[in-house]
Amino acid sequence: MVHMTQMTPSSVVIGSVLQAPSASVLQHLPDVAVVIDGAGLIVAIHPVGSPEADAACAGAIDIVRLRPAQRLLPGLIDLHVHAPQWPQLGTGLDLPLEQWLFENTFPLEARFADATFAQEVWDDMVPTLLAHGTTTAVYFSSIHDDATERLAATCSRLGQRAFVGRVAMDHPESTPPWYRDPSAAKGVAASARSLAAIAALGDPLVQPIITPRFVPACTDELLVGLGELAARSGVRVQTHCSESDWEHASVFDRFGRTDAVVLRGFGLLRDHTVLAHGDHLGDDDLAVVRAAGSGVAHCPLSNSYFANAVFPAARAMALGVRVGLGTDIAGGSHPGLLPQCAMAVTVSRLLDDGVDAATPAADRGVPGSRIDTVAAFHLATVGGAEVLGIPCGLIEVGRSFDAFVVDLDGDHRGALRVWDDIDDESRVFEKIVRLAGLSDISRVWVAGRVVSGS
Length: 454
Ligand code: GUN
Ligand code: FE
Prior knowledge:
Layout (H helix, E strand, L loop, with lengths): L10 E12 L2 E12 L5 E6 L3 H8 L3 E4 L4 E5 L1 E7 L14 H14 L4 H17 L2 E7 L4 H14 L2 E5 L1 E2 L15 H16 L6 E3 L2 E2 L7 H14 L4 E4 L3 H11 L3 H7 L8 E4 L5 H10 L2 E4 L1 H7 L6 H6 L3 E4 L12 H16 L7 H4 L8 H16 L14 E5 L17 H11 L5 E6 L2 E5 L1
Parallel strand pairs: 1-4, 6-7, 7-8, 8-10, 9-11, 12-13, 13-14, 14-15
Antiparallel strand pairs: 1-2, 2-3, 5-16, 16-17, 17-18
The site of guanine (GUN) has 12 residues, from helix 2 and helix 10.
């Protein structure tokens, strides 16, 4: 008698993998069978046609065979999304950050007091991000308990791996009276309630994250309380750090110390803290971030509007800082992370060369700053996983099967084309990173579950 119930039901995905295990290595695994257990973990990878692959297929409850003109890539990890800014995606980027927050962003976020409106936005946003291959998202929600819990529940229902944070902000000068926590104590209590409510969903893929908006928006008392909450609960932290000239200077003026050092003082710079932007982090700050085990969410498109600088991604990586990528929806005006990869490459070239032709070439840029598409994709996958400390980012035994399929032979509504006698696999990869759009992504999995496409 065969005791089938004693075996973990597994599924197999057969295809060719493209991924970036390090910033300088593009890995192509042609024709492999990826074996995934019932919990969504990758338990084996075998060459197609091997006895092991045949045995895995014989015992599988589901087999997906990709076409030769499809590629399997590890899921994208968006380290920085402002969920309630979704309705303003693509608009309003011509104001300075501090003005944009007051005129565009806080009024929109305040509307999420209306849970019905919030649900409508979440039901539109989460499937869209999944369809773009974003298998993990790190969300700033609004200040509202109900909207935040609904965001977490929506991610759970739709299968997105997510970190969801109720935004804490109470500073009477840097927030409007109609959109702030009524006091530091109430802000800390609301954040603590939100941690409990999200944990109560009981979904290991959806976790809370402690979210002071940024130092200028928070009183000392709130920052102390949230640091204590982080220490007590062990829950990860996210915030903005040294984003723009104004933000960096306002923290320095208030404390006489840099943003990173101030956050450390409040106990908010912890292992796997996600620091959005970080453009103005100096080398000393980067050392502080590294020592804490925190990481940076590099948001190159948003930075081009709001940051007054380019984040030195190559330098941060060379200094051993954990770095991943973020869209910063809606400070960044595109929902997908592949365009952020392309943008990260582009802005690194601008930083490397400099931008003002009136300055002599030798003095114009910061040599050594450039990164390529492999490094950028590494940041969007492995880099993000390292910032968060999650077992994702690579199609590798022991990691979760979070992945997406790109069609090279799709309906050609976009510009992704492969010329067989011209494009080797590294050019195919480059084209995917720079050109693949929504219509080229045909299926997305999180923890072995199909969450977009069919
Ligand atoms: N700093 C504080 N809040 C925000 C925000 O919503 N977006 C960006 N880009 N920076 C911020
Ligand atoms: Fe942001």
